[in-house]
Each structure stands twice: as structure tokens, then as C-alpha cells.
């Protein structure tokens, strides 16, 4: 297996290919190509603001959606309460708190975004990424604080 480790600089983000080479094996008489390893993007410190809909440069939409350098990102490892529209007062309040906390987390310093293997974007065109700081998921931090839950593969009601 070949490994690509040459960094490519895009704006202020450094994209590093991790094991992007192909691995071929014989599966039931067919040739199959293995999935490339996840790609990490380092996000240098910047100022994020709040935004609710529409395009953004660097802003937090809600507890699991962020615009980073004009690209809409869905934090892939969590589900946060909806804020527009919330389905009940409890969801609205929890969603407001999750949004504010995510804003604090992304403004706290540099972090990395890791792509998922096998799925680039969701049904709404948002890029699917896991946000990490010092190897720890920012999504997991929201879960520990009771502001989100681990993504189970489908939405669950908050009301």
C-alpha cells in the first residue's frame, strides 16, 4: 500500500492526505479497492459568529452545523436539538444552549476536522466532519455536557 503524506495548503487550512493510496484485494473473484483513510484539516484560530440560515464565512448555525471558510459543515458524530424550527420550548432552550456552547468551543482555538470514510456529505449538501481538539471530539464534549447526543444514524425527538 502506498501512502501520501504531502501537505497541500488551501487558504489557512492544511489538508493532509493520510494513506490515500489504493489497496487491492481479490474478493470472490472481483477486484475491490479499499477506502482511503480519513483526511484531517487543521483549522487555525479564527473568529466565529452566530448565523442562522443562508451562507456564512465562519459562523455557527446551531449545535451541530457550522460554516467554516464558507463551507457548510455538519458535525457528524452528534445530533443537537433543532433551533429553526424547534418542535417545543424545551428543544428551543436546549438548542439555544447547544448553539452557544459550540460557538465557544470553535472560538477556543485551533481544531481539526476529520472526514468520514465512505460519506462526504449529507442529504442537504453539508460536508460531514468530526471536529477534534487535542484528539478529543468537540461533539463528545457537547454530549458530556447534555447539549447533544451521539449520532445514532437517525434523528430522535427532543420533546
From TrEMBL:
Signal peptide: none
Pfam families: SNase
Domain TNase-like per the UniProt entry, residue ranges: 60-159
tRNA processing among keywords: no
Keywords on record: Endonuclease, Hydrolase, Nuclease
rRNA-binding as UniProt keyword: no
SUPFAM superfamilies reported for this sequence: Staphylococcal nuclease
An MF annotation (GO) of this entry: endonuclease activity
Name assigned to this protein: Endonuclease YncB(Thermonuclease family)
Organism: Sphingobium lignivorans
Amino acid at each position: 500500500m502506498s501512502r501520501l503524506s504531502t501537505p497541500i495548503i488551501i487558504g489557512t487550512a492544511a489538508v493532509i492526505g493520510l494513506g490515500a493510496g489504493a489497496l487491492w484485494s481479490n474478493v470472490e473473484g472481483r477486484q475491490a479497492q479499499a477506502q482511503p483513510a480519513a483526511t484531517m484539516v487543521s483549522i487555525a484560530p479564527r473568529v466565529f459568529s452566530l448565523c442562522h440560515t443562508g451562507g456564512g464565512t465562519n459562523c455557527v448555525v446551531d449545535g451541530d452545523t457550522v460554516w467554516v471558510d464558507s463551507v457548510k459543515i455538519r458535525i457528524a458524530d452528534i445530533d443537537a436539538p433543532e433551533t429553526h424550527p424547534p418542535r417545543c420550548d424545551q428543544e428551543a432552550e436546549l438548542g439555544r444552549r447547544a448553539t452557544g456552547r459550540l460557538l465557544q468551543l470553535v472560538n477556543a482555538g485551533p481544531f481539526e476536522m476529520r472526514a468520514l470514510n465512505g460519506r462526504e456529505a449529507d442529504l442537504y449538501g453539508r460536508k460531514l466532519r468530526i471536529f477534534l481538539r487535542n484528539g478529543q471530539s468537540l461533539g463528545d464534549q457537547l454530549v458530556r455536557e447534555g447539549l447533544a447526543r451521539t449520532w445514532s444514524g437517525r434523528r430522535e425527538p427532543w420533546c
